[in-house]
Specification:
By secondary structure, the chain is α/β, with parallel strands linked by helices. The protein is built from four helices and seven strands, in the order E-E-E-E-H-E-H-H-E-E-H. Helix 3 crosses helix 4.
Length: 145
């Protein structure tokens, strides 16, 4: 794992992202891949319980496709766009979403979700994102003669 700061898209230079880390890792198939890492620490009892329930239902380490039933069961709605946004900016087709919790002043990993993104999901995210951002900030990047 490597800590990173703000990463800018090579395709759409007005768009950036700041994942918690990027990493190289091996899928259960043995394939070596790269992806962004997003870590969320749950501290409220209800969000901890939701994370623990997802780990019981789907497993502690999960491999899923973006937006499939497993993904929606393991990644909270408020974090889903963030995960695909990281893939859009970096061009990675995989990501890792880690849920952790603090229990009696110690941290522990609740679940690790390895997400695979299909190209069409990444393209659609970019299409929607750019349709929103260009009208608001595109003027800052337009060269005038």
């Amino acid at each position: 794992m490597y800590e990173v700061g703000l990463l800018r898209s090579n395709v759409e230079t007005t768009v950036g992202v700041s994942p918690d880390a990027v990493c190289s890792f091996y899928l259960p198939t043995g394939a070596s891949i790269r992806g962004c890492v997003e870590i969320k620490t749950r501290v409220a009892e209800n969000t901890i319980n939701t994370a623990l329930e997802a780990a019981r239902k789907y497993g502690r380490v999960v491999h899923c496709l973006y937006n499939d039933e497993t993904f929606r069961g393991c990644v909270p709605a408020q974090n889903r766009a963030q995960i695909v946004h990281q893939a859009y900016v970096t061009g990675f087709h995989h990501g890792i979403f880690v849920t952790a919790m603090v229990d009696e002043a110690e941290g522990s990993i609740v679940q690790i979700v390895i997400v695979t993104f299909m190209e069409e999901d990444i393209i659609e995210h970019g299409r929607v994102l750019i349709s929103i951002t260009r009208p608001f900030i595109g003027w800052m990047y337009t060269e005038e003669a």
